[in-house]
Structure formats: C-alpha cells, structure tokens
Amino acid sequence: MRIEYDRDTCVGMFQCVAEWDAFEKDMDAGKATLVDAEKTDEDVFSLEVPDGEELDAKFAARTCPVDAIRLYDDDGEQLI
User: Fold this and answer.
1) Which positions, given as ranges, span the membrane (predicted)?
2) What is the pLDDT of residue 51?
3) Edge-to-edge strand ranges of the sheet holding 69-72
4) For the chain, how many structural domains are there in total?
C-alpha cells in the first residue's frame, strides 16, 4: 500500500496528524509533513505504508477535509 500527500493542497487542519504518526505538524508552514516520504512531484510526497499501519493510513486519508491524501493498493488502484 502506498500513500501520496499533496502538500500544496493541505490547509493545515492536522486531522491526519491525529490519526497517524507518519504525519507531523509543521507550524512554520501551517501544513502537515509526511515523515520520511519521497518527493515525487512538486509538493507531492509518496510513502510505502509499513506493515501493520494500513488502518492508520486509511483513517488519515479519510479525515483530510481537502482530499490532499490519496491511498493506493499494491496494484496502483486508488482506494481513497
């Protein structure tokens, strides 16, 4: 499972931070940060979801009020 986070779309509500510790608050920028993610495009970050953290990743994606977080299965199909 892979998660993609569009930091430009983020509005800093930080619900993702409350749901999954892979996200942290960046108070200077007023946006969340996806820890250890790889930058794949301008302000888009990607991370393989570690085993056992899939449910937390799903909650983080579902709680984002502006859909800045997308979740993909191992076949590349978008789940959220």
Assistant:
1) none
2) 96
3) 38-41, 44-48, 2-6, 69-72
4) 1
